[in-house]
Amino acid sequence: MKKTVLITGCSSGIGKAAARLFAGNGWNVVATMRKPTTETELARMSNVLVTRLDVQDHDSINQAIKAGITRFGRIDALINNAGYGQYGLFEAIPREKIQEQFDVNVFGVMDVTRAILPHFRKNQGGLIINISSGAGIFTLPMISLYCTSKFALEGFSEALGFELASQNIVIKLVEPHGG
User: How far apart (Å, rounded) are the C-alpha atoms in residues 75 and 83?
Assistant: First the structure.
């Protein structure tokens, strides 16, 4: 049986490239994004399901997981890729924008992970790859909030890896950086 991966944030960048790579290597792919109606390339691939998932919308998270399981029978891996960078001086950024940075980069990852864990437990294993950043291990000026959210993601991933290891659920971090 083919393996299936659910990837968040597939409308561009790392998410879209990952979806192409996995599909090209014979995996089934649940390619998720906030606005799936705008996607044309991935939607043409027979082993790719393009569906809506907004990490700030719990219903869309559950619906995307359900759609992936319905289409492919199971999900074996999750790549938490959706995210964005909040740039600027900390003191000039409104609290609402700070909250949004964490809602997407930290709480969104937590919500998608929490939603898929029962499925992984039922399957007696799974793989979760969290896309972090070099800014999660070193800091830079003008992106203090982005760095802070990625530092939080690093700590969450490391601790969760210990919590889930006994259940054959593996957590990995990818830390792209370099501009």
Answer: 21
Q: What is the pLDDT of residue 179?
A: 58
172 is catalytic: no
d(CA 83, CA 160): 19
CA–CA gap between residue 76 and residue 119 (Å, rounded): 9
Least Cα distance to 175 among 126, 122, 138 occurs for: 138
* Distant-in-sequence, close-in-space partners of 96: CB < 8 Å, separation ≥ 6: none
132 given a catalytic annotation: yes
Contact 152, 102 (CB under 8 A): yes
Averaged pLDDT of the chain:
96
Q: Can you name the residues that pair with 169 across neighbouring β-strands?
A: 126
pLDDT 10s digits, 54-108: 999 999 999 999 999 999 999 999 999 999 999 999 999 999 999 999 999 999 9
Catalytic residue among 133, 146, 149, 157: 146
Is residue 87 part of the annotated active site? The answer reads no
Residue among 132, 133, 149, 157 flagged as catalytic: 132
CB proximity list for 31: less than 8 A, separation 6 or greater: 7, 10, 15, 16, 19, 39, 42, 48, 49, 50, 51
Query: Which DSSP category does 52 fall into?
Result: E
